[in-house]
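Hey, quick one: can you model this chain's 3D structure?
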Amino acid sequence: MSDDREETTPEIGRYGVWQGRPPLTPEPAYHLENLGFGAIWVGHSPAADLRHVESLIANTSTITVATAIANIWTADPRELAAAYHRVEAAHPGRLLLGIGAGHPETQGQQARKPYAATVEYLDVLDAEGVPASRRVLAALGPRMLELARDRAAGAHPYLVTPSFNEGARDILGPAKLLATEQRVVLRTDPAEARDLGRPTVDRPYLGLRNYLNNLRRLGYGDDDLESPGSDRLIDDLVVSGDAAAIKARVDQHLHHGADHVAVQLIVADGDDRAAAFAELAADLGLSHP
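Sure thing. Here's the predicted structure for all 289 residues.
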Protein backbone atom coordinates (compact mmCIF):
# COMPACT_ATOMS: atom_id res chain seq x y z
CA MET A 1 0.00 0.00 0.00
CA SER A 2 1.38 3.39 -1.00
CA ASP A 3 1.54 6.16 1.57
CA ASP A 4 0.92 9.84 0.86
CA ARG A 5 4.59 10.51 0.07
CA GLU A 6 4.48 8.06 -2.81
CA GLU A 7 1.61 9.89 -4.44
CA THR A 8 3.96 12.82 -5.13
CA THR A 9 6.53 12.66 -7.91
CA PRO A 10 10.02 13.43 -6.53
CA GLU A 11 11.35 16.93 -7.13
CA ILE A 12 14.00 16.93 -9.86
CA GLY A 13 14.57 20.63 -10.53
CA ARG A 14 15.29 22.13 -13.93
CA TYR A 15 18.60 20.42 -14.62
CA GLY A 16 19.88 16.93 -14.00
CA VAL A 17 22.68 14.66 -15.19
CA TRP A 18 22.25 11.61 -17.41
CA GLN A 19 25.16 9.19 -17.26
CA GLY A 20 25.55 5.67 -18.49
CA ARG A 21 29.17 4.71 -18.88
CA PRO A 22 31.31 4.96 -16.91
CA PRO A 23 28.64 4.43 -14.25
CA LEU A 24 28.51 6.97 -11.49
CA THR A 25 29.87 5.98 -8.12
CA PRO A 26 28.82 7.56 -4.81
CA GLU A 27 31.59 10.16 -4.63
CA PRO A 28 30.81 11.88 -7.97
CA ALA A 29 27.09 11.57 -7.22
CA TYR A 30 27.67 13.53 -4.01
CA HIS A 31 29.67 16.07 -6.05
CA LEU A 32 26.75 16.51 -8.49
CA GLU A 33 24.34 17.06 -5.62
CA ASN A 34 26.62 19.74 -4.18
CA LEU A 35 26.88 21.44 -7.57
CA GLY A 36 23.11 21.96 -7.54
CA PHE A 37 21.83 19.38 -10.04
CA GLY A 38 18.36 18.13 -9.17
CA ALA A 39 18.51 14.57 -10.44
CA ILE A 40 20.83 11.81 -11.55
CA TRP A 41 19.57 9.64 -14.40
CA VAL A 42 21.30 6.26 -14.29
CA GLY A 43 21.60 5.24 -17.93
CA HIS A 44 22.06 2.01 -19.83
CA SER A 45 19.37 -0.18 -18.30
CA PRO A 46 20.20 -0.48 -14.59
CA ALA A 47 19.49 -3.87 -13.08
CA ALA A 48 16.08 -4.66 -11.63
CA ASP A 49 17.55 -5.14 -8.15
CA LEU A 50 18.42 -1.39 -8.08
CA ARG A 51 21.50 -2.03 -5.94
CA HIS A 52 23.62 0.48 -7.82
CA VAL A 53 20.84 3.07 -7.74
CA GLU A 54 20.40 2.50 -4.02
CA SER A 55 24.11 3.05 -3.40
CA LEU A 56 23.89 6.50 -5.01
CA ILE A 57 20.83 7.40 -2.96
CA ALA A 58 22.38 6.14 0.27
CA ASN A 59 25.49 8.26 -0.19
CA THR A 60 23.71 11.51 -1.04
CA SER A 61 21.19 13.57 0.90
CA THR A 62 18.56 15.15 -1.34
CA ILE A 63 19.16 14.50 -5.03
CA THR A 64 16.62 12.34 -6.85
CA VAL A 65 18.00 9.25 -8.58
CA ALA A 66 16.12 7.93 -11.61
CA THR A 67 16.56 4.84 -13.75
CA ALA A 68 17.08 5.68 -17.41
CA ILE A 69 15.77 3.25 -18.22
CA ALA A 70 14.72 0.05 -16.52
CA ASN A 71 14.33 -2.09 -19.63
CA ILE A 72 11.10 -4.08 -19.80
CA TRP A 73 12.79 -6.90 -21.73
CA THR A 74 15.53 -7.49 -19.16
CA ALA A 75 14.29 -6.14 -15.80
CA ASP A 76 11.72 -8.46 -14.28
CA PRO A 77 8.80 -6.26 -13.14
CA ARG A 78 8.22 -8.09 -9.87
CA GLU A 79 11.89 -7.88 -8.97
CA LEU A 80 11.87 -4.19 -9.89
CA ALA A 81 8.77 -3.59 -7.76
CA ALA A 82 10.31 -5.36 -4.77
CA ALA A 83 13.47 -3.29 -5.17
CA TYR A 84 11.45 -0.10 -5.45
CA HIS A 85 9.68 -0.84 -2.16
CA ARG A 86 12.98 -1.70 -0.46
CA VAL A 87 14.61 1.57 -1.55
CA GLU A 88 11.51 3.61 -0.78
CA ALA A 89 11.33 2.20 2.74
CA ALA A 90 14.96 3.10 3.41
CA HIS A 91 15.07 6.42 1.54
CA PRO A 92 11.55 7.82 1.11
CA GLY A 93 10.91 10.08 -1.87
CA ARG A 94 14.35 9.77 -3.50
CA LEU A 95 13.70 7.25 -6.30
CA LEU A 96 12.03 7.76 -9.69
CA LEU A 97 11.62 4.78 -12.01
CA GLY A 98 12.25 5.46 -15.66
CA ILE A 99 10.82 2.51 -17.61
CA GLY A 100 10.88 1.69 -21.29
CA ALA A 101 11.06 -0.84 -24.09
CA GLY A 102 14.61 0.02 -25.06
CA HIS A 103 15.64 -1.46 -28.40
CA PRO A 104 13.67 -4.69 -28.93
CA GLU A 105 15.27 -5.42 -32.31
CA THR A 106 18.65 -5.77 -30.61
CA GLN A 107 17.33 -8.18 -27.97
CA GLY A 108 15.42 -10.79 -29.95
CA GLN A 109 12.02 -9.37 -29.07
CA GLN A 110 10.77 -8.56 -32.58
CA ALA A 111 7.72 -10.81 -32.17
CA ARG A 112 6.34 -8.77 -29.28
CA LYS A 113 5.07 -5.26 -29.77
CA PRO A 114 6.82 -2.75 -27.48
CA TYR A 115 3.60 -0.87 -26.71
CA ALA A 116 1.64 -3.96 -25.66
CA ALA A 117 4.61 -5.27 -23.69
CA THR A 118 4.93 -1.95 -21.85
CA VAL A 119 1.24 -2.01 -20.95
CA GLU A 120 1.63 -5.51 -19.53
CA TYR A 121 4.70 -4.41 -17.57
CA LEU A 122 2.83 -1.46 -16.05
CA ASP A 123 -0.04 -3.78 -15.13
CA VAL A 124 2.38 -5.85 -13.06
CA LEU A 125 3.83 -2.77 -11.37
CA ASP A 126 0.31 -1.64 -10.54
CA ALA A 127 -0.48 -5.03 -9.04
CA GLU A 128 2.75 -4.86 -7.01
CA GLY A 129 1.86 -1.44 -5.58
CA VAL A 130 4.29 0.81 -7.48
CA PRO A 131 2.49 4.16 -7.82
CA ALA A 132 2.13 5.75 -11.24
CA SER A 133 3.42 8.97 -9.68
CA ARG A 134 6.80 7.35 -9.14
CA ARG A 135 7.51 6.26 -12.71
CA VAL A 136 8.08 7.90 -16.09
CA LEU A 137 8.16 6.25 -19.49
CA ALA A 138 10.78 6.44 -22.21
CA ALA A 139 8.49 7.81 -24.92
CA LEU A 140 9.07 9.13 -28.42
CA GLY A 141 6.00 8.28 -30.50
CA PRO A 142 2.45 9.53 -29.91
CA ARG A 143 1.07 6.27 -28.52
CA MET A 144 3.83 5.88 -25.95
CA LEU A 145 3.47 9.52 -24.94
CA GLU A 146 -0.25 8.92 -24.42
CA LEU A 147 0.60 5.91 -22.27
CA ALA A 148 3.01 8.07 -20.26
CA ARG A 149 0.19 10.55 -19.74
CA ASP A 150 -2.30 7.91 -18.66
CA ARG A 151 -0.18 5.42 -16.71
CA ALA A 152 2.81 7.36 -15.36
CA ALA A 153 3.97 10.70 -13.97
CA GLY A 154 5.17 11.69 -17.43
CA ALA A 155 7.84 10.99 -20.04
CA HIS A 156 11.61 10.79 -20.35
CA PRO A 157 12.43 11.12 -24.07
CA TYR A 158 15.99 10.54 -25.24
CA LEU A 159 17.93 11.88 -28.24
CA VAL A 160 15.50 14.65 -29.10
CA THR A 161 15.70 18.29 -30.13
CA PRO A 162 13.92 21.11 -28.30
CA SER A 163 11.21 21.20 -30.98
CA PHE A 164 10.18 17.65 -30.01
CA ASN A 165 8.93 18.96 -26.68
CA GLU A 166 6.11 21.02 -28.16
CA GLY A 167 4.33 18.00 -29.62
CA ALA A 168 5.10 15.93 -26.55
CA ARG A 169 3.63 18.59 -24.29
CA ASP A 170 0.48 18.75 -26.41
CA ILE A 171 -0.02 15.03 -25.83
CA LEU A 172 1.01 14.91 -22.18
CA GLY A 173 -1.00 17.97 -21.16
CA PRO A 174 0.14 20.66 -18.75
CA ALA A 175 0.35 18.62 -15.55
CA LYS A 176 2.62 15.74 -16.55
CA LEU A 177 6.39 15.70 -16.21
CA LEU A 178 8.48 16.05 -19.36
CA ALA A 179 12.16 15.35 -18.68
CA THR A 180 14.30 15.34 -21.81
CA GLU A 181 17.92 14.34 -22.42
CA GLN A 182 20.49 16.67 -24.02
CA ARG A 183 24.07 15.85 -24.98
CA VAL A 184 26.67 18.53 -24.15
CA VAL A 185 30.31 18.88 -25.21
CA LEU A 186 32.33 21.58 -23.48
CA ARG A 187 34.23 22.65 -26.57
CA THR A 188 34.06 25.91 -28.53
CA ASP A 189 35.59 24.49 -31.72
CA PRO A 190 32.71 22.96 -33.77
CA ALA A 191 34.84 20.32 -35.49
CA GLU A 192 36.33 19.16 -32.20
CA ALA A 193 32.88 19.06 -30.61
CA ARG A 194 31.51 16.97 -33.48
CA ASP A 195 34.42 14.55 -33.21
CA LEU A 196 33.45 13.94 -29.57
CA GLY A 197 29.70 13.98 -30.01
CA ARG A 198 29.19 12.11 -33.27
CA PRO A 199 30.15 8.60 -32.06
CA THR A 200 27.61 8.84 -29.22
CA VAL A 201 24.84 9.46 -31.76
CA ASP A 202 25.97 7.24 -34.61
CA ARG A 203 26.14 3.92 -32.83
CA PRO A 204 23.82 2.49 -31.90
CA TYR A 205 21.13 5.14 -32.42
CA LEU A 206 21.40 5.64 -36.19
CA GLY A 207 20.85 1.92 -36.49
CA LEU A 208 17.71 1.74 -34.33
CA ARG A 209 14.36 2.23 -36.00
CA ASN A 210 12.54 3.89 -33.11
CA TYR A 211 15.11 6.69 -33.00
CA LEU A 212 15.31 6.95 -36.78
CA ASN A 213 11.53 7.18 -37.03
CA ASN A 214 11.42 9.92 -34.43
CA LEU A 215 14.22 11.89 -36.09
CA ARG A 216 12.35 11.66 -39.38
CA ARG A 217 9.26 13.04 -37.66
CA LEU A 218 11.45 15.93 -36.54
CA GLY A 219 12.37 16.71 -40.15
CA TYR A 220 15.65 14.90 -40.76
CA GLY A 221 16.13 13.09 -44.04
CA ASP A 222 18.11 10.10 -45.20
CA ASP A 223 21.17 12.25 -45.90
CA ASP A 224 21.15 13.37 -42.26
CA LEU A 225 20.54 9.92 -40.83
CA GLU A 226 23.00 7.89 -42.86
CA SER A 227 25.89 6.81 -40.61
CA PRO A 228 27.79 8.62 -39.13
CA GLY A 229 25.19 11.44 -39.22
CA SER A 230 25.28 14.80 -40.96
CA ASP A 231 26.90 17.83 -39.37
CA ARG A 232 23.43 19.38 -39.12
CA LEU A 233 22.10 16.39 -37.18
CA ILE A 234 25.07 16.24 -34.83
CA ASP A 235 25.01 20.00 -34.18
CA ASP A 236 21.30 19.79 -33.36
CA LEU A 237 21.64 16.81 -31.02
CA VAL A 238 24.94 17.71 -29.32
CA VAL A 239 25.24 21.25 -27.99
CA SER A 240 28.66 22.85 -27.76
CA GLY A 241 30.16 26.33 -27.55
CA ASP A 242 30.70 28.84 -24.81
CA ALA A 243 28.70 29.04 -21.59
CA ALA A 244 26.02 31.26 -23.10
CA ALA A 245 25.50 28.95 -26.07
CA ILE A 246 25.24 25.85 -23.91
CA LYS A 247 22.75 27.41 -21.50
CA ALA A 248 20.70 28.83 -24.37
CA ARG A 249 20.38 25.44 -26.07
CA VAL A 250 19.63 23.56 -22.86
CA ASP A 251 17.02 26.15 -21.92
CA GLN A 252 15.39 25.84 -25.34
CA HIS A 253 14.06 22.51 -24.11
CA LEU A 254 12.38 24.32 -21.23
CA HIS A 255 11.04 27.09 -23.45
CA HIS A 256 9.51 24.47 -25.78
CA GLY A 257 7.65 22.63 -23.03
CA ALA A 258 10.05 20.49 -21.00
CA ASP A 259 10.10 20.70 -17.21
CA HIS A 260 13.59 19.28 -16.80
CA VAL A 261 16.68 18.62 -18.91
CA ALA A 262 18.89 15.62 -18.16
CA VAL A 263 22.29 16.70 -19.46
CA GLN A 264 24.60 14.01 -20.82
CA LEU A 265 28.12 15.39 -20.59
CA ILE A 266 30.48 13.98 -23.20
CA VAL A 267 34.17 14.26 -22.36
CA ALA A 268 37.37 13.12 -24.04
CA ASP A 269 39.44 10.29 -22.63
CA GLY A 270 41.67 11.70 -19.94
CA ASP A 271 39.49 14.73 -19.19
CA ASP A 272 38.77 15.54 -15.55
CA ARG A 273 35.09 14.62 -15.40
CA ALA A 274 34.53 16.25 -11.99
CA ALA A 275 35.99 19.53 -13.23
CA ALA A 276 33.88 19.30 -16.39
CA PHE A 277 30.70 18.86 -14.34
CA ALA A 278 31.66 21.88 -12.24
CA GLU A 279 32.14 23.90 -15.42
CA LEU A 280 28.78 22.73 -16.75
CA ALA A 281 27.05 23.63 -13.49
CA ALA A 282 28.55 27.11 -13.72
CA ASP A 283 27.43 27.41 -17.36
CA LEU A 284 23.88 26.59 -16.26
CA GLY A 285 23.96 29.02 -13.36
CA LEU A 286 23.65 26.36 -10.69
CA SER A 287 24.79 26.76 -7.13
CA HIS A 288 24.95 24.64 -4.00
CA PRO A 289 21.37 24.00 -2.85
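One thing worth noting: The mean pLDDT is 94.
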